[in-house]
Amino acid sequence: MTPLLVIIAVASIALHAEVGPLADSISPDRGAAITLAVMAAITLAQMAVRLYANRRLDRATLRDGAPSLSPRATFRLIRVHDTVIRLAPVLQTAALVLGVFCLSLPDFVAERVPLPPIFATFVLLSPLLVALALGWAIGYDMDRRLRESSLVAGLDSGRVYHAMPSRWLWTWTQFRHHLLIVLVPVLLIAACTSLAETVALSRAVRSVVGSTPLAMDLTTLALQVASAIAVLALTPSILRRLWDTAPLPSGPLLSGLYDIAAHARVRIRPPLLWRTHGTLMNAMVLGFLPPTRAILLTDLLVESLDDTQIRGVMAHEVGHIRRRHLPWLAVVVVVTLGLTTAAADLLLRAFAPALLEGAEAGDTDHALAAGVVTLITAAVTIITFGWVSRRFEWQADAFAAATLSSLEMQRRADAQADPHAGPQASLVPGSDLTSETAPATSTPASGHASPAAAAAALPAHITAEGALAIASALRSVAMLNHLPLDRFSFRHGSIRARLDHLDSLIGRPIAALPIDRTARRIKLASLAAGLVLLVLLALDIRAATSGRDGPDPGNRRTAPNPDSLLSAAAPYTGRPCLHAPPKPPAHHREGPPPTDPTSRSSPRGTTPS
């Protein structure tokens, strides 16, 4: 959730540069004071609630053999603390966005700290970053308490435990893992965008592509897209060095991970161990290009889960790569943003053209309406992104269950084909090769089935063992992270919903999973929407070009308007034509044009006197 909030804050700062302030009745100094005061009040309220919860739990000592706090009261305190953790960053981000659009916070920064746009963006983000860091520092005591509460159970199960880091190291670790993953690419893209605009306006580039506004706009867009792709390609390498990562040690676990990638026909780099001092349980894919793409497994995940569960997590991440979820998410965001913006523009042109003209003229009231439309566009894009991301998570779960089911059935086929090879380790503890679970295979005259024939005879469906490997990993992650199964996540949904989805997949054919059909429809809809967006863009460029050339609807060439500084025979350069004939004085102008309606030489825009 934290990375998404930072993206919203950065997007609001970028939109402010395009839309402008929605209200200018408050001075920048007062607006900045109000914004900082609201964010400070939210932080102080967060601190008060967390300190109260910690103090109550500290006083929950034994009295006469019974705890002074009932389990229900203890759970209520933890629930309130958890609600504050989730709500405070949202309120702080909302306060910053309102300060940017309605309280002239960017004007205050521009007046007090005259910096380039990239540094000004970082200065505007600094209140939110400081508030998030203070939140992690304040919540250190509760996180330590929850971690110590599972110490005995973890030691009994043989799990490795790391010493709780200091408050400063804990806060810095959370900052690196939750914010740098967003700040690094976003700030680099912002810097490259500004550089692309400067390069596009340079004299050397204009001499090559031309100096027309359309050519310069297209050149700037092409440079910005190329720089964004380059930054996203290099971000995994940068983050691997900013985070504490190391190659995963060799052994059966690493061999099993390579087997999963080979079975899925996915080329991966060696998986990395993400060392978080035992503070984070997560796995993720960094990058979408094979040369720089990497799969990261945190130390807490590797040390807390068994090999079967880690294989399930790894198969889930391989599913994201195999189904190309990261590029498709980018396509969904771009297409949704473009279509929503185009739809809003068409609606304004059809039903409120005066509103659009007023917004272009810089009227405050019309700029307010345009800002509201922009915020609605951003909201639609974010909601669509979350909905698609949750479906992709379900597809990755299904892919992992299908992959582990196929590997398990292949293991059974190999065991039946070569009974003298001895027992082989199953992917899921407890699974056997009894007649009730092992499918029947055809046996040739020699008495042994070939592995290929045995594998072909196996039913291609998701087994309970394959789904159980993913489900058990999800339950363990929820338990070790102290997450309720019903807690909703914007990008992943709730764990209970994912468990129910996995349960519904057992026995279904791998080649006809419902979630795969849903994902295909999403991708096809994205392609169709992208084509529509390209057509609208082409029509917009054509309209702009034809408007600059100036042909009339009757396809008739008319004489240039003598009142205009632009000559119809001169190419459009975005500025008054220097070689056009000068405008004669008023007393030397010719008489009124002929009134004959059939005349084709009457200037446009003039009327008879």
Distinctive features:
two-stranded antiparallel ribbon; single chain; 609 residues; four-stranded mixed beta sheet; mainly alpha; disordered C terminus; 3% strand; globular
Secondary-structure blueprint:
Elements: H1 2-19, H2 28-58, E1 62-63, E2 66-67, H3 71-102, H4 105-112, H5 117-138, H6 140-149, H7 151-156, H8 167-178, H9 180-200, H10 203-209, H11 213-242, E3 245-247, H12 252-263, E4 272-274, E5 283-286, E6 294-298, H13 299-304, H14 307-322, H15 325-351, H16 353-361, H17 364-417, H18 451-457, H19 464-480, H20 495-505, H21 514-549
Parallel strand pairs: 4-6
Antiparallel strand pairs: 1-2, 3-4, 5-6
The structural class is mainly alpha
Distance between the termini: 67 Å
SSE run: HHEEHHHHHHHHHEHEEEHHHHHHHHH
C-alpha-based Rg, rounded: 31 Å
3D structure, described in words:
By secondary structure, the chain is mainly alpha-helical. Among the domains are: 1-61 and 68-149 and 168-178, no CATH class; 181-243, no CATH class; 323-415 and 458-548, no CATH class. 64% of the residues lie in helices and 3% in strands. It has helices spanning 2-19, 28-58, 71-102, 105-112, 117-138, 140-149, 151-156, 167-178, 180-200, 203-209, 213-242, 252-263, 299-304, 307-322, 325-351, 353-361, 364-417, 451-457, 464-480, 495-505, 514-549, and strands spanning 62-63, 66-67, 245-247, 272-274, 283-286, 294-298. The protein has a four-stranded mixed beta sheet, with helices on both faces. The protein has a two-stranded antiparallel ribbon with strand order 1-2. Strand 1 (62-63) and strand 2 form a beta hairpin. 26% of the residues are buried.
